[in-house]
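Bumping with the actual sequence this time:
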Amino acid sequence: MAKNLLTIAGVVILLMGTGHLLLTLRDVWKPTAFTPTDDSVRLAMQAAQLRFSRRINLWDSWLGFNISHSLGAMMLGGALLFAAQVHLEGFLESAFLKTAAVLITAMYLVVAIRFWFRGPVIGISIVLVCVLAAILQ
């Protein structure tokens, strides 16, 4: 049962991360998903440089953040799938790996509740419940 639960968790977060990445990459050429509803805000973001580096504008930083965020979710999904399919016993015997899986997923959930919308909250909740159930079963 733990294998199936971790597999579900891995697939859900991997699909969420992949979807987020595809939407963000589309925004590089045709801003539609993670762009403000008011185009003047995006244009202002494109015109505003960061104090940290005048070489980059706020819009490019926003896209880069979303791409790196997607890769993190995809990495977590891949790690959970790897644990489920290749090293289940090692995962279940490692307090470090179990704790890391729960804490990272829980942190994603806290961020989702505070900053995002219902879809990610539901998806990440499913992931967290599956990870906890796999560990506790």
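The tokens above came from a reply further down the thread. The radius of gyration is 18 Å.
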